[in-house]
Amino acid sequence: MFNPTVARLTYRGLLGRRRALVLFALPALLILISVAVRVLVGADDSIASSVLGGFALATMVPLVGVIAGTGAIGPEIDDGSIIYLLAKPVRRPTIIVTKLLVAIAVSVVFSAVPTLIAGFILNGNSQGIAVAFTAAAAVASVTYAAIFLLLGVVTRQAVVFGLVYALIWESLIGSLVPGARTLSVQQWALALAQKIAGEGLVTSDVGLPLAVVLLVGVTLAATAFAGQRMRSLTLAGEE
Amino acid sequence: MTTLSIDHVSRWFGNVVAVNDVTMTIGPGVTGLLGPNGAGKSTLINMMGGFLAPSAGTVTLDGATVWRNEQVYRHIGIVPEREAMYDFLTAREFVVANAELHGLADPGAAAARALATVEMEFAQDRPVATYSKGMRQRAKMASALVHDPSVLLLDEPFNGMDPRQRLHLMELLRRMGAEGRTVLFSSHILEEVEQLASHIEVVVAGRHAASGDFRKIRRLMTDRPHRYLVRSSDDRALAAALIADGSTAAIELDWKERALRIQAIDFAGFTELLPRVARERGIRLYTVSPSDESLESVFSYLVTA
Fold first, then answer.
1. Domain of residue B105, residue span
2. How does residue B292 score in pLDDT terms, banded at 50, 70 and 90?
3. Which residues have a Cβ under 8 Å from the Cβ of B35 and sit 6 or more positions away?
């Protein structure tokens, strides 16, 4: 279920495009903010928690997920170069799983790792906050990568839909409509952070068992569906 | 694995019929798929390449269904019409990646061989993004040839190529055909197909219009009535002299246009007759223009023939 050549092409394509700059800019911004906060207010557990929860997990992780997930396949489908992968005796689900693994790896490197660094800068992992949010960022990265990869397969406007989901659904609707939070990758990931961090510093609207089921279920379902869609991917002529 | 069979294949998009009940068999040698733009050539090639499901009918390669069967790609090489490749790679990296995807034992050697076949060694270590159209086409060819396929499908391979690149690619395809491979290329330009293909399939408006040896099809095309618009210093005298010859069928004096409308039935005879008659009678020709030479009219004549 893994093809090293597909992986190589995918990751070079991901990091070789201009939108890859966002991959570097967002973590850099997070670390910059963390340094500024630490210098200005010193180490504070609840501030560390709000920076990591409010910026890292709520904004940076989904945005990196959108870029890595849709970027792992969308551009190739758009410009037609995917034909060079499809016209090969390689099973289509293998192509999807490989691309998903690359998208996950890129997301984790560009979101979970910076979250850990930022956490240590903010309060030196006091109350386990840095590790808690890093774990949340990592599991969220996996699910986001799967969702946005599927979006990249099914629609040409994957980036737009991804941004709408990441910014409007996760941030706006989630803060206005409490029920919507149950259907939020961010809340599922927070359930894990809540378990790891010290009492009362992180709260999630979803219980951990349900969160795990949803994270795993959505990831698997999105991947399976993307693999299915790949099998009958149609490349229409330009006539 | 050498014979592609298209059996009663139709393909529609919504309520637009792109390919309408086409049956053809493509065997070894070079076959040209000829038709005007929008005739359904790309749709057909996409179905032959397994990138589009037929709405009805079957496409098979020596009996094996092509759609949703990635094993057929061991035998098929595809040169797509679209330009995009992995532009950030060099041609060598790109062709090696293709060889790896085919699971070849020695991808490096296979890629070197394919790049030599298309004579691209000189630029193989430059990124594809820096290539001209013709070089891209050759890099695409190398990627399609890397696993030594017995079937080669090319969608409008000559589009945008300069004459020298065109000759080079024709020579290459001719060689592939002579080696016993099944080579199918699409084109909307009659001369291209005529120079290269021993066998022609003509598609017009989604229908299979003609099939066979190019000489036969060429004759069909040249033997159709040709219409010309001619202006001269003495239209009446010219008309009288021309109608006396068997190569013309009808001549009309168009007073509004101040011109002759001539219908010729013997193309070769008429093209020789007109300047000779004009010279003999001292008539000056101001305009000689074919009035129905558009490809569409040629093709539509073929459909009714």
1. 4-221
2. low
3. B41, B186, B188, B202, B203, B204, B209, B299
Binary contact (A89, B155; C-beta < 8 A): no
Sign, CA dihedral A180-A184-A188-A193, equals negative
In terms of domains, do B91 and B203 share one? yes
Choosing from B196, B221, B246, the residue where a domain stops is: B221
Which residues on A lie below 8 Å from B45 (Cβ)? 237
A238 by DSSP, 3-state: which? coil
Indicate if B116 and B255 belong to the same structural domain.
Answer: no
Sheet holding B29-34, edge to edge: B76-79, B151-154, B182-187, B29-34, B199-204, B207-213
For the stretch B28-44, pLDDT in tens is 999 999 988 888 999 99
User: What is residue A19's predicted lDDT score, i.e. its pLDDT?
Assistant: 76
- Residue B107's closest chain A neighbor by CA? A5
Query: Are B186 and B33 within 8 A, CB to CB?
Result: yes
Let me know whether B146 and B239 are in one domain: no
- When divided into structural domains, chain B yields a total of 2
Closest to A238 (Cβ–Cβ): which among B73, B81, B98? B81
| Tokens standing for residue B303 | 């459909």
Min Cα separation A105/chain B (Å): 21
- pLDDT > 60? residue A94: yes
- A9 and B86 in contact by Cβ < 8 A? yes
Identify the CATH number of the domain in which residue B291 sits: 3.30.70
- C-alpha A183: how far from chain center: 15
Please check whether residue A162 is in contact with residue A69, taking contact to mean a CB–CB distance below 8 angstroms: yes
Identity of the residue numbered A93: P
Q: What is the mean pLDDT of residues B47-68?
A: 94
CA–chain centroid gap for A103, Å, is 8
Q: Is the pLDDT of residue A71 over 90?
A: yes
Is the CB of B41 inside 8 Å of chain A's CB atoms? yes
Residues of A in contact with B78 (CB under 8 A): 83, 87
**Domain ranges (residues) in chain A:** 4-231
Check if B286 contacts A (Cβ < 8 Å). Answer: no
CA distance B34 to chain A (A): 14
Residue in A86, A77, A80, A220 with CA at minimum distance from that of residue A155: A77
Asked if B248 contacts B264 with a C-beta cutoff of 8 angstroms, the reply is yes
CA distance A26 to chain B (A): 24
ipTM: 0.90
Q: Which of B86, B25, B299, B267 is closest to B187 using CA atoms?
A: B299
Of A80, A90, A233, the CB nearest to B84: A80
